[in-house]
């Protein structure tokens, strides 16, 4: 693992660790869909301003097949996962959403072992620990719509991680990030009219007129979307899907601490123990497994 990958992993963990609590604050005011659209628009604008030259140059190679490949990567990673996360946070606590969404590496390992048609004992053991942890957590809480949605998000996130590694594109990395976020923004906007009433939908303008919401949208749009997805796809490209997936498990520690300090959410002993098992499973695959491979 390169030294810069380690620092980027820590930065990604810090950003994602703060994202759920910040999102929850805005979602409580404007609802998940208004928040998603506002954040996506901000991300698109920021990425376009920063990587304008690379984006314009990418138009020379952006044919239909290339655009289709980029879209396939974008749908699970940049559209479905953030949207499902936002909706789940409307129905459940930051702590529950955080712990359950980071079961994603378990699903990533299952998919990769299935594709390779080869079982790895260490990966299987880490999966067992992870699923025991999930069981303990679900047993300790009421399983509602929010918990189901967040587990679906974890599955789509795992699919997205594998798809990102398997599908080859020729578009420069920076430009590809912009096209993916743009595709996500369009898809969120298209699905927006289906939520015309109810708490899932509030006027988008509130995101830019309410100071608290605006600060949350700017943070998530610039740091929590644009910057963090740059790091995410960089790690997948330069390390591996499994590495990037398990590296994200550093984030929940930060999130749970923030939720406890600022949102008055206290995890139960079973939740803490279950999360500890999930985190240990991550260490096995992210630290122990690469060490053993290197030794052999």
Verbal overview:
- This protein is an all-alpha fold.
- The protein has one domain.
- It has helices at 3-50, 52-58, 64-91, 94-101, 104-116, 121-140, 145-166, 173-191, 206-209, 211-238, 241-247, 251-262, 269-295.
- Helix 8 (173-191) packs across helix 10.
- The longest helix is centred in the first third of the chain and has 48 residues, at 3-50.
- It is globular and about 45 Å long.
- The chain crosses the membrane at residues 37-55, 67-91, 97-115, 122-142, 148-165, 177-195, 207-231, 243-263, 275-293.
In short:
The chain is mainly α and about 300 residues long. It has 13 helices and no strands.
Distance between the termini: 16 Å
The best one-word shape is globular
Structural class by helix and strand composition: mainly alpha
**Rg of Cα set:** 19 Å
- Count of DSSP-assigned helices: 13
| Unreliable spans | none
Secondary-structure map with pairings?
Blueprint: H1 3-50, H2 52-58, H3 64-91, H4 94-101, H5 104-116, H6 121-140, H7 145-166, H8 173-191, H9 206-209, H10 211-238, H11 241-247, H12 251-262, H13 269-295
Keywords: Cell membrane, Membrane, Transmembrane, Transmembrane helix
Membrane topology: Multi-pass membrane protein
Pfam family, one: EamA
